[in-house]
Amino acid sequence: MNSFTIDVAKIQFSQEGYLPDIPYHLISTEELLDAFEVFFQRVYALPAGFESLQATYDKLYNAIHEIITHWKALQSSQNNADVFTVDGITYTIDRDHIPDWIMSFMLRRVVCPSSDVLDRHDLLALLEMPNTYDEFNLAAATKCAQISERWVSKLPIDQRRPATIFGEPHVIKSLRLQMQGEL
Amino acid sequence: MRMLPVDKSMQLTQLSKMVGPQNTTPVLIANGIDRVVDVGKAVYDRCSNIISSTYNTVLSKQRKVTWLNWLRGDSDLFESAAMFSEYEWNVLDNTGTFPYTLNIPDGMNLVDSSTIIGNNTPTDNLVAKEAVNQMQQYGKIDPALFITYSTIPSTNTGYVHTSGVHNVFECFKIPWGEVTLYSALSNEHQDFPVYPEKLSDKAVADYDTMPDILYQYEPWYVYRSSGPRENQYVFDFHRDMWTGDHRDGYAYRLIQFCKANCYPRYSGSAVNTSFVTLYIGGQPIIHGILKEVNDDWDGPLGLDKRPLHCTLTLTIAEVSKESLNYDYVKNNYPKEVHSQDVTETKLL
To answer: Which residue of B61, B73, B150, B276 is surrounded by the most CB atoms within 10 Å?
Structure first.
């Protein structure tokens, strides 16, 4: 169980007000995931003007929602794993493990329009799409989606996930490998 | 009483940074605000609800006077409340704090912040009395009551403390308290805003020669006296270094204080002269009589058409409090206090 990152996420959400101000060990992972859904809809909402990426975003959001729902159901069942399909992608989840890509959203490791300007700048520099105010605009999001589609299509079957429109770690990794000429 | 103005977009993490993580929940509880992500919005919504629900309510004059008396301990809050509109009075009466602010409970230690209002300076009695009278009689207060006519900028003006620098020399670390001239005649002292340009000292000894002894390969010297130890201390300063307003007269006050020590105080037939002591960094540099004070002015002219830059030279001749002899002078030097004796050795 990725318990350390879960504890860090609980503390972070508690400080930001998504969770009550109580010691983190008194907060269950289910409560954390409920708070995460509120957090995701607020911080990683589809920005206005990005309607062309609505379909990709909906797939991402539905996947997160279903994974959380199935994970919570798994805790009260006898099974150790669950397999289900959302939007044509088959997911396998473990009762002891929340997918790392969801944890990266939880810990704000994903670059989005509301991220720190330095993080946005670094991503835009990798995308070779700098702009005056380092805005994470539609063009940057579209390019992230293209890179992400390429990346997730090569993932093993048991690690499948939807593509993203944000600057997730795998997008940044892909861009860095591209820069090094290894991709 | 202290209040924290809140922006509508303020989030819980921002509030936590301003008041400290350990104070965040107590502040919210004290103000009846839930611990939510958008704290600013919650404060604004609360004010908006009160304003809309008390739209036709006019607070009684007596109630307003009660609030004004309660705010007398902070002149900036008193002045702001005196200018309140009806909806602002309703918010204050319902929440105990100004509109769109959070009340900071007493006893809570916060870091100094330019955004906290409540200067802890009591309102002038005359102003407070007149304000209360006007409120009781007319139901409102004339803003002219709070107008002051000083041309010297006050650090307590305005509703919100700004972080703007009033005195350009606040950017520099003026060594106030480090250089002081003490006058024994009046038992007063004045601080210099600067260190002396340089420190020079000397010791002299005066010998007579015996010219009548002939055929000597070198003269015979006879000790006559030592001293005087007379030094010049030069201070370079600008009239803005005190308050930022060179019309405050503090530079002239310092110069006149120095010059006054060149004159005695007559008391009947007694003529009392002054002894001065110059302290630098808490150490007495010289104690004696002030023989000469020179002030040379140059530089641009200020708003009062007087030069701004002064070079002040003090000539002090030592009058030692102790008997000066070889052993005393040899051992009388500044010694630093170490926490550990440097000669101590440890056997491993």
So the answer is: B276
